[in-house]
Specification:
With 131 residues, this protein is mainly alpha-helical. The chain contains two helices and no strands.
Length: 131
């Protein structure tokens, strides 16, 4: 009983460790909301002689994307044919020959061993009683 408890405990610990490791490796889902915007850093004090305060840019302002390169079409080369898959072992002749040999041997053993033990032996001497 103690061995069974240890095996179950080991399985649970392994499962827990695997799930936490997987959770740490996977990236966050793409549909997650963006992080909350923080307040902009305080602006430096206005310089002497400057009359208008400088306002910081919005943190969500993104630069314009560069245009995509033009599409170039090229002709594909013919794909190389994959190597033929080997025939499964259960379709091989040697496998069925071995299965047949085992079946015949098992049948012979069962027929010989399941005879009635009270029958006289199959010898030329017959059933000889010593006493």
């Amino acid at each position: 009983m103690a061995i069974l408890r240890r095996a179950i405990l080991l399985a649970l610990v392994t499962l827990f460790a695997a799930s936490t490791a997987r959770a740490q490796v996977e990236p966050p889902p793409a549909t997650s909301p963006p992080p909350p915007a923080t307040s902009p850093p305080p602006s430096p004090p206005p310089a002497a002689g400057s009359s208008a305060p400088v306002t910081p840019l919005s943190p969500t302002l993104a630069p314009e994307q560069a245009p995509a390169p033009p599409l170039v079409l090229t002709e594909r080369t013919a794909q190389e044919q994959p190597a033929p898959r080997p025939q499964p072992f259960y379709l091989q002749t040697w496998f069925w020959a071995a299965v047949g040999l085992v079946a015949v041997t098992t049948t012979i053993i069962l027929v010989v061993s399941l005879r009635d033990p009270r029958d006289p032996p199959d010898t030329t001497f017959g059933n000889m009683h010593a006493f």
